[in-house]
Design brief:
Elements (H helix, E strand, L loop, with lengths): L1 H16 L2 E5 L4 E9 L3 E8 L2 E8 L3 E5 L5 E3 L13 H17 L3 H17 L9 H8 L21 H43 L1
Antiparallel strand pairs: 1-2, 1-5, 2-3, 3-4, 5-6
Length: about 210
């Protein structure tokens, strides 16, 4: 009897520890123990402070759910009425692009340009309060150019040159670039204001 109870406890513990994977449409991966799936939501458990906490995810934002044994339930389906224009294989490529952009896209050039833009104009034009307009202006402009794949960020070499993958990469990379450019240009403005206040203005007063 004790052996049976021990095996039951061990099975329940192993089930709670098993990690299922929820693959979101935005490229993110959520790990936990899935306890329920429906057309409305995915319910799963995640460890927090020594106990399991239940969370939910709307099914319309979920591509698939893969259990700890590797069995996958795909919730995505192609339906142009719902805006789902890609087939399931194409959507996998799109999501891979999103995930790679989230993890590996590094817009170094635009970030450095944002810093130079913020600092340079603030100092050159002797801006004060109006310098606060520079970061959103620069970030808005950076929403338009094409997103180029960062070298080494492609997790699957077979995706290189795939147009659907590139579209997914751009979908996640563009907002990432905008946010980083907003921050870098804001830092540039702060540096420009500091240089004006502590370096340029004292020299003009001499």
């Amino acid at each position: 009897m004790r052996i049976i109870l021990f095996l039951l406890l061990l099975a329940s513990f192993s089930g709670a520890r098993a990690q299922d994977t929820i693959n979101l449409m935005n490229g993110q991966l959520l790990n936990g123990k899935v306890i329920g799936q429906s057309t409305f939501e995915i319910r799963y458990l995640v460890p927090r402070r020594g106990k399991l906490v239940e969370r939910t995810e709307p099914t319309d934002g979920v591509f698939s759910v893969k259990d700890s044994l590797g069995h996958e339930k795909v919730w995505y389906f192609k339906d142009t009425l719902f805006g789902n224009t890609y087939t399931i294989p194409e959507m996998r490529c799109f999501i891979k692009g999103e995930r790679d952009a989230r993890l590996g896209y590094k817009p170094i050039g635009p970030i450095l340009g944002g810093f130079a833009f913020g600092a340079g104009l603030t100092m050159a034009m002797n801006l004060q309060m109006s310098s606060l307009l520079l970061p959103p202006i620069y970030a808005g402009v950076m929403a338009w150019p094409r997103v180029y794949v960062t070298r080494g960020s492609i997790s699957d070499p077979n995706m290189d040159g795939d147009p659907v993958y590139a579209t997914g990469y751009s979908a996640a990379g563009r907002p990432k670039r905008v946010i980083n450019c907003l921050l870098s240009s804001a830092v540039g403005v702060l540096v420009g204001l500091a240089v004006n206040h502590y370096v340029l203005y004292p020299q003009q007063d001499k």
